[in-house]
Write a structure and sequence with these properties.
The chain is an all-alpha fold. The chain contains 18 helices and no strands. The protein folds into two domains: 141 residues, no CATH class; 258 residues, no CATH class. 71% of the residues lie in helices and 0% in strands.
Length: 409
C-alpha cells in the first residue's frame, strides 16, 4: 500500500515529511479535555486517542506506509483506556463503546488523509479525527442512558427540546444577540461577494476582517448569554460543514458558485481539495466552550475566552503587525518576531479588557506566561493557528494555575 505521507499538507514548504510539531499538535485536544474534564472516562479516552496518534505516526507515517487498519499495537491505547478508567467496567456497553472508539482512530485518520489529499497536516488530521470520535462516543453514551427508544418517547423529547429552544431564543436579550449575529454574518457574506465580483486581491490583512466579525459575535455572547452562543456555534459549524459538502459534491449550480467565491479567499493552508480555514476559525474560537465540562453560567471563567483571545485578537494582531512591520523571520518560516510580539501584546490587552468587563480577577504574571507560551507556539509551529492556539491557551491557563497552587502549598 502506498505511503500516505505524500498526501499530507506540507509544513514550511517541505513535501512528504512529518514533523515533531505534528506530535505536539496531536496531544492538544487530549490535554485540553484532560485538564478540565470532570468525567474520568472522557479524560482517559481523550488521552488514549492521543496515544493512538503517536502509534499511527510511527506505524504509517515514519515507516514504509500502512500495514493495514488494525495492528496488535493499536490495542494498547484501548487497553490503557479500560485499565485507567475503572468505571468503564461497570457498564459493558460503555466499555465496548470506548474500546471501539479507540480502535477506529487509525482507519478514520487514514481515510481522511486518502480521501482529501493535501488538505490536512498530520497534526490537523489528528485533531479532527479525535474530535469526531470523542463527539460520537459522548453522544452515543448519552443515548444509551435514555429510558427507552420508542418513537413516541423520542418524539416527546424532541418536542420538549424544540419548545425550550423556541422559548429561550425568543427572549428579548436573545433576539438582540441573534439579530446582531445575523447582521454580522450578512456583512461578512457581502464582503466575500464584493471582493469576488470586483476581483480585488485578497491579502492576509483582508482575511482578518472575519476575525473582527468573530470578536463582535463572541464577546457579547459570552458576556451575556453563553448557552445561546454555545448552541448557535454548533448550528453555525454544522451549516459551514454542510456548505463545504455541497461545494465538493458537484451539486448543479450551487457547487460552482460556492467554489468560485470561497476559493477567492483561500490561503496557503487550503492547498487540498477542501476549503477549511473558515470552518477552522469558527471551530477554534468555539472549542473552549465545547470542551468545558462545567455549566455555562455568567460570568464565564477566563479559560473559556481562550479562543477569542488567542485567535480573534492574538492571531489577527500577529498577522497584521508581521505583514506591515515584520523584518526578523523565525528560521525556516514566513512568521516574524515582530508579529509574535504584536500578538503577545494584543492577547494581554484582550485579557485585561475581558477581565474588566466580565468582573473577573486576573493574575497578570500568570496570564502573561500563558500569552507568551501561545505566541511562541504560533511562531514556531506551522499548523493551522485557528485550531491550535485556542487549545494551547486553554490548557496553559489550567497548567499555570496548577503550578501556582503547587508552589503556594
Amino acid at each position: 500500500m502506498e505511503s500516505p505521507v505524500q498526501y499530507l499538507r506540507p509544513l514550511n514548504g517541505q513535501e512528504n515529511k512529518v514533523h515533531i510539531s505534528d506530535i505536539l499538535t496531536s496531544f492538544l485536544l487530549p490535554l485540553a479535555v484532560y485538564c478540565f474534564q470532570a468525567k474520568l472516562f472522557i479524560s482517559v479516552l481523550s488521552l488514549s486517542l492521543g496515544l493512538s496518534s503517536v502509534i499511527v505516526y510511527f506505524l504509517d507515517y515514519r515507516g514504509g506506509g500502512p500495514t493495514g487498519n488494525v495492528s496488535v499495537v493499536c490495542f494498547v491505547p484501548a487497553w490503557f483506556a479500560i485499565t485507567f478508567a475503572p468505571e468503564l467496567t461497570s457498564s459493558s456497553v460503555r466499555m465496548y463503546l470506548t474500546f471501539w472508539t479507540v480502535l477506529l482512530y487509525r482507519p478514520v485518520f487514514n481515510k481522511l488523509i486518502y480521501s482529501f489529499k493535501k488538505s490536512f497536516s498530520f497534526g490537523e488530521c489528528s485533531l479532527i479525527s479525535q474530535g469526531m470520535l470523542l463527539a460520537s462516543c459522548t453522544a452515543l453514551n448519552k443515548l444509551y442512558w435514555f429510558p427507552n427508544y420508542s418513537v413516541p418517547y423520542l418524539a416527546k423529547r424532541m418536542d420538549r427540546w424544540l419548545s425550550w429552544l423556541v422559548k429561550y431564543a425568543t427572549r428579548p436579550l436573545a433576539i438582540k444577540l441573534i439579530s446582531s449575529w445575523m447582521l454580522l454574518g450578512a456583512l461578512s457574506v457581502v464582503v466575500v461577494i464584493v471582493y469576488k465580483r470586483r476581483q480585488w486581491p485578497v491579502s492576509t490583512l483582508t482575511r482578518k476582517i472575519f476575525h473582527l466579525s468573530v470578536i463582535l459575535v463572541y464577546i457579547p455572547g459570552m458576556l451575556y448569554d453563553p448557552l445561546l452562543l454555545y448552541t448557535a456555534s454548533i448550528a453555525a459549524t454544522v451549516l459551514f460543514i454542510f456548505l463545504e459538502l455541497i461545494r465538493i459534491t458537484s451539486v448543479p449550480g450551487l457547487s460552482r458558485i460556492l467554489n468560485d467565491y470561497l476559493r477567492h479567499f483561500t490561503d496557503d493552508k487550503d492547498g487540498g481539495s477542501l476549503i477549511l480555514t473558515n470552518i477552522y476559525l469558527l471551530v477554534g474560537v468555539s472549542l473552549p466552550l465545547w470542551v468545558w465540562p462545567g455549566k455555562l453560567d455568567t460570568p464565564l471563567p477566563l479559560p473559556l475566552y481562550a479562543g477569542i483571545i488567542s485567535v480573534g485578537f492574538g492571531d489577527a494582531a500577529s498577522s497584521i503587525i508581521g505583514t506591515l512591520f515584520g523584518r526578523t523571520h523565525w528560521p525556516g518560516s514566513k512568521k516574524t518576531f515582530e508579529g509574535a510580539v504584536g500578538g503577545f501584546i494584543a492577547q494581554l490587552a484582550a485579557g485585561v479588557y475581558i477581565s474588566h468587563v466580565a468582573g473577573l480577577k486576573l493574575n497578570m504574571a500568570a496570564f502573561s506566561s500563558v500569552c507568551l507560551l501561545t505566541s511562541l507556539f504560533e511562531l514556531a509551529v506551522d499548523q493551522v493557528d485557528n485550531l491550535t492556539l485556542p487549545l494551547v491557551m486553554y490548557s496553559g491557563m489550567h497548567l499555570i494555575q496548577v503550578l501556582q497552587d503547587y508552589f503556594e502549598m
